[in-house]
Amino acid sequence: MVGFAEYLGVGTRTVSKWEARGADIEPMPELQAVLDTALARADRASAERFRLLIQAGTAARAAAGRRRGTVEKSPSSPAPVAPVSPVTRAVGPGRSVRAARANQNLADAAGRVARTSVRDRTTVPGRIRPRRRPGAPSDLSPVAPVTGPIALGGAGVQGSPRGVAVHDWLTDPLVQLRAVDSVPEGGAPSVAPSLACAPPESWETSWQEARGQNATEPPGGLLAVGRSDVEAVQETVSFFSRVDQRRGGGHARTAVLQYLTSDVSAFLNGRFTDDSVRRQMFAAAGELACLAGWMSYDDAEHPTAQWAYSIAVKLAAEADDAPLAGFALRAMSRQVLDLGQPERALDLAAASVNGERYRRAVPRERALLCLGQARALAMAGDRQAATVAVKQAEAELASASASDIEPDRVFFVGEASLAHQSGCVLRDFGDLRGALEAFERAVQIRQRSKFARAHAITLGDLGDVQARLGRHDQAVVTWSQALDAMSGVRSARTRAIARRIRVMTASKPVRVEGSEELAARVEHYLAG
């Protein structure tokens, strides 16, 4: 694969055999397939477990639909807001991020970026001199060897930004999981300030102490939890992670949340055979919570995603799994970035690579953390630091070995994801030709059936760049392929791609052969 510095010039559907009562919800074929397999193997216990999980998920989804219907009918409720694209994030009618930076707020915005920079830019005309961290190198060239993650300054690494409440970080995660109706389903795509920041210092102390003071044994005693229970949770996380990659967060998301707040919550409050099992269970639950957050983010349920991500970080702290905490913080940064808060995204990205979260991670996970940091830096306008972060991701991924003992959560990280994220960084800098090459590379090497959603999003991004370069015929073909890949995918992000295609095909330059048919396909997809 061509290096990032060179870019810069420096399944068959299974028919359901059961019917969800009281819910007009389509069956979940992926879950039904597991149920069928269990039945074929005469594994009655597994079959019953997944049957109940399916029923719980569809019931929860139906309830969420009724709640949404109530909100939509209420005249006092705000109009739903679509997720903001990181490509063309609007700051006002007809105004782009680049246009906004030209107005009177430019100095303030540049000052915030400068405080997070890793390079002294006094020699660059028109740039603001940043505050240097003690011991920081005076220059990190994009062609110089990189030996570690970019360490960003700012309150986000050791504490929360000024003026931001931190009370949600101080809430016991076990209390959050047990609370009735604790999952904040529905609402506008926004992020509460109390969680759109890195955890403050000693953030886990208060809720751990409070738990020790208020601990009471529930009626009937504590649930006995052993290694087999840990393995059951891990297998469930692995299964749903792959469903998410193929089908999108809209499939089985409510089932995952139901499993987290019921069965897994009971395990976390149980009686463990030893401390090792306890830590393993908290780590498995943390991965499940992070998956629930990612699926909710992908389904545009942003308050739910925020709630789940914060729980994942806390459970990782209980498990003494620093890399898992970094993984969850990186996902939080991505969500906040897509919702138009680059400064908070920088804080969270910096926290994700802070200390043990980066040092104890395997190379593949380190690459993912560096890419998350690069995306935040690119949207903040720091080209130099973002370049260094992508180069570091390339180096980390190149050092990954088949002999590495890797957590299952990084199974999707590879050359294709590196190429796609590199293309996004280049696109955000305005290097469309470099982005075009990176997106084409990602499309060529991605395992399309295994990662259908990512493939569809990459094709959508590639078509955007082709259209912006004036290659309208190619863009129409690429977008048609993107719609093919979206078949069977339930994702707010793929729907956002479809809406972008609708806008682009409506413009006069893109009205070429096949564009009308493409526009009709877009409407059919969005109506589904």
From TrEMBL:
Domain of life assignment: Bacteria
SUPFAM superfamilies (UniProt xref): TPR-like
InterPro entries assigned to the protein according to its UniProt record, in alphabetical order: TPR-like_helical_dom_sf
Region annotated Disordered, chain positions: 62-144
Low complexity biased stretches: 99-110
Protein name according to UniProt: Tetratricopeptide repeat protein
Organism, as annotated: Kineosporia mesophila
